[in-house]
Amino acid sequence: MTAPTAPRAFSSGPVWAHPLFWLAFFAFAHIAVRVAVSPALKWDEAEQMLWTQQLSMGYGSQPPLYTWLQWLVNQVLGPSVLSLSVLKHSLLAMTYAFMYLAAREVLDERGAFWASASMLLMPPLGWYSVRDQTHTVLVTAMVCAAWWLLLRIARKPRSLDFALLGLVCGLGMLAKYSFAMVAVAMLVAALSVRTTRSALLSRGWWWAPFVGLLVVLPHAVWLFSHLHEATAETIGKMNIQPEVGRAQGFLSLIDGVAASLLLWVLIALWAFRAHWWRTPVAPASPAIHQMLLRFLMLVMLTLAGMVLFAGVTSFKGRWILPLLCVAPLVAFAARPQLQQDPRAGRYSVAIFGMAVILLVAAGVRPWFSGLRGEVDELNHPAVELAQELRTAGYDGLGTIVASDHMLAGMLRVRFPQALVDACMSAKNSVPQCVADHAERSRQAGKGLLLVSRADRIAPDWWEQALSRVAPQPVRSIDLPFHMVREGTPAAHYGYVWYAPK
User: Fold this and answer.
1) What whole-number distance in Å separates Cα of residue 18 and Cα of residue 387?
2) Contact (CB, 8 A) for 123 and 53
3) Which residues contact 297 (CB under 8 A, 6 or more apart)?
4) Longest C-alpha distance within the chain, in Å?
């Protein structure tokens, strides 16, 4: 079995001809588009705006790293759409860059570009991460970084790379708990191949587990005492129902895998056609390719085992994405001759075209929703609502309690000096939640603003919210949605303002 070859040097061409230049260009373009398109927030964006009001060792069912990073960015840019977009698209750029570096360990620049940019053709990363995702983006970046460091170690083991691999794996666990499955499958796959096993057990290997444990240990202590809180929501989303039968689970698994890989497979087949299997040659770095194939096999066996033995019946593309994002690298490492294929330009053009399509789609999505008559979160008039609340007497400092977390996050951006929370019946007792905020506001000498929106409110929310505070009439604000077709009903907001005494 031949040893992995050293990566070739970067080509000495103009900077704009390098793939990393276009990676940075599209990252900046997406940031500009997101800031320009709407000051309102999507689901995960609003969640981060609320969570970053305080630092914690965990946030519900999610580990803390993304929120910590968002808190840091907020300290520089303030809690804003800009800070949300800068962090997300920086992490997306890192995801593609790390996969490019991983692929450069076994492929030329063109093949490395394909292995990285092909992830753009995976909708959970190429589109849904742009639309509204947080932790999935971060954990995918850490997975790609782990692949880069593992392949560097397979080529030439160094103590520094072992330490960095441990750091990345620790951060991966703090990004999303599903990283554990990736790490275990990577370890088993690497140990199962003689060449990569020798590299992985080289001098200095202990730095990886040592650094990884140091990074994870503080959160692990917290997790031990909050295990139900951290796992209940995720288990619920997986829809564990052994009595339903395995067929539903396997259908959901197939759907999740197809949602991640099908578009990429179709475009790759269109571009290269029979060249994928005509005149096959030896893979680039056979030992590494064998390890990558075994990793994918282990992942699929694990997912199938979750259906067979755990009764999991629901899989989503964003859950499967970090497990399968290495698939394009596996494919192009298996067929390195495609890098010189006469049809190679077609594939590069298809990737570039998809990048442009996704950028345009990110800009027009609220108009598209509005023209269909389906009001999106981004159609809400955030700036006008804040102005109306100020006109009604809100001072920008009093505690804000909203009927849903997206409205709360949107107001957190408009009133960064206020404490903002969402009291929702699905999460907590609305009367107790509102009463607690009212008492804390009274003790701090601040006012209390209760606010709701008509398109996302429980029928009895106001009745519950006012049941343990001084009764006041609920006042209304009606504002036109942005970017909607003529005749769309206005956005309706209700509020009660308790001025400070």
Assistant:
1) 46
2) no
3) none
4) 82
Q: Under a CB-based contact definition with an 8 Å cutoff, are residues 460 and 366 in contact?
A: no
pLDDT score, position 368: 87
Nearest to 176 by CA among 211, 139, 149: 139
The residue written with tokens 């060249």 in the block is: 275
- How high is the pLDDT of residue 3? 41
What residue type is 126 in one-letter code?
G
Task: Give me the pLDDT at residue 315, please.
Answer: 85
Buried b (16+ CB within 10 A) or exposed e, 449-477: bbbbbeeebbeebbebbbebbeeeeeeeb
- Distances from the Cα of 501 to the Cα of 83, 205, 342, 448, angstroms: 34, 63, 76, 11
Q: In this predicted model, what pLDDT tens digit does every residue of 7-17 receive, in sequence order?
A: 444 445 666 66
- Confidence (pLDDT) at 16: 67
Length of the chain: 501
CA distance 107 to 6: 10
Rounded Cα distance between 68 and 81, Å, is: 17
Both tokens of 80, joined, read 């804003």
Burial state string for 127-161 with b = 16 or more CB within 10 A and e = fewer than 16: bbbbebbbbbbbbbbbbbbbbbbbbbbbbebbeeb
Neighbouring residues of 56: CB distance < 8 A, sequence distance ≥ 6 = 64, 67
Q: What average pLDDT does this structure show over 482-494?
A: 92
Sheet holding 399-402, edge to edge: 420-422, 399-402, 448-453, 491-498, 475-479
